[in-house]
């Protein structure tokens, strides 16, 4: 199973790349984590934010695999405990499909992306900066995996 994070935004600061890389290298090969950056839509001038979100959605949908299990990170989604995430991760792994985790831009995810999602997950009721979301997501996936294998990281 591959875990792919499709995230709007490009050229993250070095500290983001380093943080994500640290957790990526800790995950086993059968749960490889990949970050796919989606170019943000144009929000300058007279362009309406909805148009930018639609362009981001098109780019995101074009990167999905036909059989991907799609999870939208959405403020209106359900909040999961780490234990719940570990359970989901185990189910995804045994389901035999790749998992695509969708992270929208500053105006959220396109409705078509939300409609494609089998699940909606909210990392927090707080508004998190998008670079930080990548690190939190990578760390929580790693933490969930450690729970599954009995590693002492989560205590």
From TrEMBL:
GO terms for cellular component: cytoplasm. Belongs to the RNA methyltransferase RlmH family. S-adenosyl-L-methionine binds at residues 73, 104, 123-128. Its EC number is 2.1.1.177. The lineage of its organism: Bacteria, Pseudomonadati, Pseudomonadota, Gammaproteobacteria, Oceanospirillales. PANTHER family: METHYLTRANSFERASE (PTHR33603), RIBOSOMAL RNA LARGE SUBUNIT METHYLTRANSFERASE H (PTHR33603:SF1). It comes from the Bacteria. Specifically methylates the pseudouridine at position 1915 (m3Psi1915) in 23S rRNA. This is Ribosomal RNA large subunit methyltransferase H.
């Amino acid at each position: 199973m591959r875990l792919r994070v499709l995230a709007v935004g490009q050229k993250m600061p070095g500290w983001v790349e380093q943080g994500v890389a640290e957790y990526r290298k800790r995950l086993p090969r059968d749960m490889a984590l990949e970050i796919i950056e989606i170019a943000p839509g144009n929000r300058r001038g007279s362009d309406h934010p909805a148009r930018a979100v639609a362009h981001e959605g098109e780019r995101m949908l074009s990167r999905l695999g036909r059989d991907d299990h799609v999870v939208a990170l959405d403020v209106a989604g359900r909040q999961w405990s780490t234990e719940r995430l570990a359970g989901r991760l185990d189910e995804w792994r045994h389901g035999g499909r790749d998992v695509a985790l969708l992270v929208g831009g500053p105006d959220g995810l396109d409705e078509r992306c939300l409609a494609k999602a089998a699940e909606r997950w909210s990392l927090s009721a707080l508004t998190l900066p998008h670079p930080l979301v990548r690190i939190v997501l990578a760390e929580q996936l790693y933490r969930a995996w450690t729970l599954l294998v009995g590693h002492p990281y989560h205590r």
